[in-house]
Amino acid sequence: MRSRAVAQPFGTYTQPLRLQKRTEGALTKRLITNSFPLAQVREMIASGHPWFRELGGPEWRLLELSTGHWPMFSRPEDLAEVLGSLLAPASQ
Questions:
Q1: In degrees, to the nearest 5, what angle opens at C-alpha 44 toward C-alphas 33 and 78?
Q2: What pLDDT, on a 0 to 100 scale, did the predictor assign at position 91?
Q3: CA distance linking residue 92 with residue 70, whole number of Å
Q4: Label partner for 82 (CA 20 to 30 A): which of 16, 34, 69, 74?
Q5: Contact (Cβ atoms closer than 8 angstroms) between residue 75 and residue 69
Q6: Phi, psi (deg, nearest 5) at residue 31
Q7: DSSP secondary structure string for all residues of 79-91
Q8: What digits encode the pLDDT tens for the residues 50-81?
């Protein structure tokens, strides 16, 4: 894993993200779960678990890629396919 890793850009620590215009909640949010099965994530959302309770709104689309914590290493092609599907009009 170390041979394929790259450093996180330092600016992500020092520069706050600023939106250029307000979206008024219009953004669809997505979670690609891989360390937890999707059914377990849904159960934790329903139970109000603090890690997941914010994911229960209608703006969230939950997806699952069954693998470990590092899907970019264990299943890179599948991860690319899932990420690519987010750009398709049907998933908007």
A1: 10
A2: 43
A3: 25
A4: 16
A5: no
A6: -120, 125
A7: HHHHHHHTTSGGG
A8: 999 899 988 899 999 999 888 988 999 999 99
